[in-house]
Fold this sequence. Notes:
By secondary structure, the chain is of the alpha+beta class. 35% of the residues lie in helices and 24% in strands. It has a 7-stranded mixed beta sheet with strand order 17-18-16-15-21-22-23, with helices on both faces. A 6-stranded mixed beta sheet has the order 3-2-1-5-14-13, sandwiched between helices. Strand 1 and strand 2 form a beta hairpin. Helix 10 (244-251) crosses helix 15 (436-449) and helix 13 (372-396) crosses helix 14. The radius of gyration is 21 Å and the shape is globular.
Amino acid sequence: MKKSYLLAIDQGTTSSRAIAFTTEGKTAACASEEFTQHYPENGWVEHNPDDLWNSVLRTCRKVMADLNITADDIIAIGITNQRETTLVWDKKTGKPVYNAIVWQDRRTTAYCESIYSSETEALINAKTGLLLDPYFSASKIRWILDHVPDAKQRAAAGELAFGTVDSFLLWQLTNGKVHRTDATNASRTMLFDIHHQQWDDELLTLFDIPKSMLPEVLDSSADFGVTAAEWLGGEIPVYGMAGDQQAALFGHACFDQGMAKSTYGTGCFLMLNTGDTALKSTNRLLTTVAYRLNGKVTYAIEGSIFMAGATMQWIVEGLKLLRHAGESEAIVKDVPLDHGVFLVPSFTGLGAPYWDPNARGAILGLTRDSGISTIVAAALQSVGYQTKDLQKAMERDGLRPKVLRVDGGMVKNNWVLSFLADILGAIVERPQVIETTALGAVYLAGLHAGVFHSTAQLATLWHCERRFEPSLCAEQRNHLYAKWQHAVAQVRL
Length: 493
């Protein structure tokens, strides 16, 4: 039987997904599994590494079973993953020395402050395009080496490996034969020079991290290795790898300079393609690797928001205002946009463009008229307002996307996208395939496998399901946004 599927592993913050796509980029089968979030202390977020690996394995096997296919029917695998989340494991046993420290985790705030100086931040920003912040992997590695008994000594002896989730999964899939990552994931560690495309000795010295811990960095579409036959019933090549936001950009076919996408998953991430120029932001946005193909780097400007879908998860699980997030659209349909209540979801600090790890969440403007529908509306609107923060920062950098392609679980909600178009004053496009992150991973894998021949061909596969156009006038938009900015100022006092 002719091989006919590409398999995406999409390992996210709250769930793992496996999705089989046809060679035309159509979804054939999907399996998803949520796993436990661990909060050992205030501001700390961890995952059990076994949960990450086992949920990936189970979802892959379920997709194969649902389609009644074997490893022989799968052309290649593409891996996409939550970025910055940090794992350190023993090179001989593959056993992690500590839980995965999640990208949202803020435990290294004091450490980052202790090494901060204008010179240090300038050095980090010049080489990596990032800011000195607990968000990125470097300070998380340092914490593990400092707090796990004997870890520092074992790392110095070359016994420990570091990886973001992609390289940890690759290590497991290949039974420890391969320790690799791609340029997009490497660019989020705060240890990778994005201009010279290599691990940087000066940054490794700054964070006191042995180079022997680090994975080999490949293009995003490359031969990453072959899965051990025992896991999926046969050997399958892994040909694609990218961090989730870069994979989404690729899945949206944002291949031209100036094209932009915004993903609404656990967090929200607005990314704009800047071509072969690593454009430096003067408004605290991040310069990052969008993708690397055939050794050629395409760069992007990115704004990162920590709480999007995670805010709705809190509404459901924390406040228990809804049974599930899918109820939100119906409950807010009659709520006016200017209802006076603002929810600032800075539960783990504020991301771009504020980068304030000490800010904490608040609901402001409550009156006796405020009810569940108002608070839910404020939660949903917080995503649009935070995206507006990023848009304004991009505008100040001379970039203003007129059209925004969107994906992620929240974009099923028409009310959210209508408000997003209104507050941005921009066209919002929802694609036919909203599993765009996984799609980007299989596009990368398919390019290396020869299933797809060029990014131009991939661009023809993107189709818009619905366009949302703004209906608010500029005066109304600016009035709402000014009130949002006032609310944000209250949580930063």
